[in-house]
């Protein structure tokens, strides 16, 4: 499949934003005290979401305005091997419940570290696919 320069630029923007989210999530864990673990998890979720959306943009698959990683994974089903991505949908909760008072549940350090681990799985999987395609 031939991909236009415009599409590649959009993919690059999505992945750059994803990398910023991941970098911020990881950096937050270095705080000496009072780490906002809910925000760490939120940025890990955002990283995974943006990598999935970058993949969809590359494959010219329209996607709705959603933070549901499960829904985004469904849209990739014909183009992306989903092995090792089964757990990723669990990150979706961090897109909403961690941002608004009254909706949030406590996010522990372990939860935040797991969110980062899952985001890194998505990143690796998408990067592997891009390496095959580009």
Topology (elements, then pairings):
Blueprint: H1 5-28, H2 37-58, H3 69-75, H4 93-96, H5 109-133
Helix pairs in contact: 1-2, 2-3, 2-5
Task: Quickly describe the structure.
The protein is mainly α. It has helices spanning 5-28, 37-58, 69-75, 93-96, 109-133. It has one domain: Nucleotidyltransferases  domain 2 (Four Helix Bundle (Hemerythrin (Met), subunit A), Up-down Bundle), CATH 1.20.120.330.
Q: Report the principal-axis shape.
A: elongated
CATH-derived architecture: Up-down Bundle
Helix content: 55-70%
Ends distance = 10 Å
Briefly note the structural class of the backbone: mainly alpha
Outline the biggest β-sheet: none
* DSSP E strands, number: 0
Number of helices: 5
Q: What fraction strand?
A: under 5%
Question: Describe it for me?
Answer:
- With 134 residues, this protein is mainly alpha-helical.
- The chain contains 5 helices and no strands.
- It has helices at 5-28, 37-58, 69-75, 93-96, 109-133.
- Helix 2 runs parallel beside helix 3.
List keywords for this structure.
134 residues, mainly alpha, Four Helix Bundle (Hemerythrin (Met), subunit A), 5 helices, 0% strand
